[in-house]
Structure formats: C-alpha cells, structure tokens
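Entry for the shared binder. Reason: the reviewer on the internal report wants the predicted structure included alongside the sequence.
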Amino acid sequence: MHAPAHHYTQLIKAKATEIGFDFCGVAKADFLEEEAPLLENWLKNGMHGQMNYMANHFDKRLDPRLLVDDAKSVITVLLNYYPEEKLPERNDDLKISKYAYGADYHFVIKDKLKELLAFIHDEIGEVGGRAFVDSAPVMDKAWAKRAGLGWVGKHTNLINRDIGSFFFIGELILDLELEPDGPITDYCGTCTRCIDACPTDAIVAPYVVDGSKCISYFTIELKEAIPEDVRGKFDNWIFGCDICQDVCPWNRFARPHQTADFIPNPELTTFTKNDWLEITEDVFREIFRRSAVKRTKLEGLKRNIAFVNSAT
C-alpha cells in the first residue's frame, strides 16, 4: 500500500472522529462474494415480506462499483444512539425502539457524511464519491464487518466489542484508494439469548432473521392489518423492537450517545399509555416532527397501538 493511501486513511479517520462518529473503518470496494448466496436465499424464501425494495437492485447491493464509477474504497462509520435514559417501560407502557427517540438518523448521518466528503474534497482534491445512509441498495452490515468495525451477531445486527450494537451505520463510497482494515472475529460463541428472547420467533436460525416475522417489520414496514397469529406477542412494542439487542450481553458495554439530535422531545419522556391511546394529529406532528416514527404516519401508529392494546 503506497504512502498517500495510508496518509489519506489516517486523515479521514481523524476527521470522522472530530465530526462525531464513534468508529470509522475502510474496506476495499469489491464484490460481496460471501453475502451474494445468502441474500439470494433470503429473498427466495420470502423473508423480506412486503419489503419489495429489498429485492430491487440485487447486483448493486453486492457491488459498490455499480453505485460509484471506479469505486475503490468503502468507508463505514458508526454513530451511537444509546440513550442516557430509556423512555418509561413500566408494565403497561407502550414502547418505541431507542433508535427513534430523537431526530431521524437519515438526516443526522447524511449531514455528517457530507461534511466528511467536503473535507476529503478540500484536503485531497477531486475525489468521486457518494454518501449512503440506509436508503440505497448498500449492505451496511456487510461493509461494516469488512471494515473491522464489528461482527454480525446471531440476531443479524452488527456488534462492536466496545459499545455493543445500538448504533447507526453510514458509508462513503469513493474512487480513492485507501488502506483497508481487516475483519474481526465473531464473538457470539455459544450464546443464544437473542434467539431465545424473540417473542415472534423471527430469528429462525443463528444469523438468519425472517424479516416478515419481526416486530419491527409488523409495526413499521407492513402496510396492511397485522396478522392475528401474532396478537399478544408484541410485548407492548408499537414502533420497532429492541428485544434481541436488549438481551445481548455485549450491550452491557453500551454507553450514552453524545449527539444532541438524538435526545427525545421532552414531552415524549413523560408519555403514558393513555397519551398514546389518545394521540392526535397535532401531538403526533409536534412530537415526531423530525423523528423516524413519521414513517408509519399517525394512522399506522394508531393501528399498532390498537393491536397491542387489544391484547392486554
């Protein structure tokens, strides 16, 4: 690896830390050979449910050079979102996933990645590249794994030894040669806590999640009525679900994030079950104005609330 690649890599990683990312790693922009058959089988078995977008752009998902001409490197960044304090989770409280407490991560990470890309242009010059945050056909976890930022756990989330798994992933795909990091070992061992804890049995085998059985899928992606056979199994989750991460021993290392944008609206921190049951369009718009919860729209959220409430 020639000297500029090493120098540029160090420069970019230092800037990523300064911008607020918790981790930054680099992988060579190659075809994802290991993931190709796994993705194909997963789709063939219908484990994406109604997430039809997962079946689109199959080739692009597996080869970053189809997304950025002459791509040479994939920079992956992690941004912690673990909250200082969880929202109330008493017996009958309704729950939303921790990633949705604050501002929508798409915007937060995209802005930080654009800042990193602007820095690269200023410091290094004409570099072709694009920023990606979970909205294009990029296999985030595969690239994070290749960049040595963690391993993919049995619940199929990326686990980092230092901070667990409560973080967002973003990428810059560049036509710039950088020094790649190597992957790290899988440290799940014989543990099956995530598999045992999933109330809808969505983790159908170690490292395989049937997306169409996941509480996050039912409460966010599914547009029609939630199937009756899962009634009573949602453990009060009305947007997303954190069960498989909450029980993971690696998350004892989770530490509070340092991103002001992820601090929840103060009103949300005192929300009771009754507040959820009586939520109006105005309240929804005010509290979730910049939140990922907007994805369900009020009508979808009300469907989830009614479904969970009728089972208690």
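Summary line for the report: The radius of gyration is 20 Å.
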